[in-house]
Amino acid sequence: MAIQAAERPRKGPAEDQQARHVLVLVLGDVGRSPRMQYHALSLLEAGHLVTLVGYDGEGLIPELERALPQPNPAPSKTRPRYHGNLYLLRMKPYAPSRKGLLSRLVYYPLRLASLFYCITHALWVGLQKAPHTKMPVDVVLVQNPPSIPTLLMAYLYCRWQGVCRRHRPRFVIDWHNLGYTMFADPSSMSGRRAMVQNFIRSIAKCYELRMAPLADAHLTVTRAMQRWLVDNFSLRGSRIQVLYDKPPSMFRPTTVDEQHELFSRLDVDIDIQWMPSNAMNREETLFTELIGKKGGSLTVRLKDERPALLVSSTSWTPDEDFSILLDALRKLHSKITANNLSSFPRILVAVTGKGPQKEHYLPLLREFNEKHSRINITTLWLQAEDYPRLLGCATVGVSLHTSTSGLDLPMKVLDMFGCQVPVCAINFDCLDELVRDGENGRVFSDADELSRQLLDLLDGYPSGDSSKTLEAYRRNIRDMERWKENWDKCAKPLIVGGFGGYEKKLI
């Protein structure tokens, strides 16, 4: 296991008597867990110490990277006031092979043993080396799923702290979904395989059912999940707070100058036949151009005949069926050419993200681009700071997220809403808690319906009635509450508030 070392935290707000030490535990790539990173950032901004534990992988959001102690720190004016109050523990669990019958039989025991070791080492060894050790952990905030063995290990750590230090941390679970639903549904299988899968899901559900009441408090991403936990896991509603995902301040509309700078860099990675000839000298991009006299002042403006930018952020997994978007774009192109819609814009589809099915789709995307002249699909993997900028340029977003439980919501839609981008989202239970059809976006059920919606929304872009519809959606999105205000109101009191009476319950 790799541990990213840190220096002692700088003196500041976190050393106030009201400051707490919060352990944020993610059994996954912490760089790909935005909600838990936003928790950490909000805690830091509130003046608390944070130890963030998760897998090694992607980098943190820029705000957290700047909070980490640096070997050669930048000038104090550029450092956040909470610089040095974040400690990062990176885990590298052993990943056994799943090839061959024997490997498949021993995969889960070996994987589970590896996870037990990693979490034990992080909490009982790595954390003791942290500069925050002199301040005991007050709160353990755990992402769920995955549930196994995270919930058990977090609970045991809290109990151990209570016995050894007479100071039991508050145990808080942040429910992103139901852990047992992440295992494949046996209803799509048959025979012995279905029996085994049903047994695994039953064990996982029983484990989650037993562990949930042991937590002191809970956060959920939807009201539907809150009700489900109360009804099915026998939790008291007073211990559960809904914390909707909300976009942080970094997600906002991108200015024209920022768009020009961004696409001056990204155009190099976009291979399409209608790339402007001046793109290489930064005078022109697909969407913007410099105007003014040579040698004089130049101004950036949006092109009158720019393409529409459709953005979809996907994890390239079966839960987000990319074939739906691909099929919808084929149908859309057929309608454009069959009806000779000269007013319909060209469309650049930017797909971001990494995942197991990406390599499968890349040849299909190349084939699509060769056969369809009016629509081009490009895949991008962006730096953390460029992702919100790209979303802020988008005309429309597409969400392919479907929930395994029907109780969670796609956080990527929140990112798009933060940038005031209307979204077409595939329908599932409780989506109406976020996307309201005809108010802030559209809801579709299949590729044919999505193609019709895109035809309606983009016809005549960037002018005409379709643009008025998009602008109406943006107005409905504009006043959406941000992460900070929502977190201060809903999560802060539950995570770090009300410790006066709680601290008396040591064990």
Written description of the protein model:
This protein is of the alpha/beta class. The chain is 37% helix and 16% strand. It is built from 16 helices and 15 strands. The strands form three sheets. A seven-stranded parallel sheet has the order 3-2-1-4-5-6-7, with helices on both faces. Helix 8 packs across helix 12. The model is unreliable at 1-17 and 501-507 (pLDDT under 50). It is a single-pass membrane protein. Keywords: Endoplasmic reticulum, Glycosyltransferase, Membrane, Transferase, Transmembrane, Transmembrane helix.
CATH architecture of the domain at 307-480: 3-Layer(aba) Sandwich
Structural classification: alpha/beta
Question: What distance separates the N and C termini?
Answer: 30 Å
The pLDDT mean sits at 86
Q: Multimeric state of these chains?
A: single chain
**Rg, nearest Å:** 25 Å
User: How many DSSP-defined strands?
Assistant: 15
Largest sheet: 7 strands, parallel
CATH superfamily of the domain at 307-480: Glycogen Phosphorylase B
CATH topology of the domain at 307-480: Rossmann fold
Number of helices: 16
Shape: globular
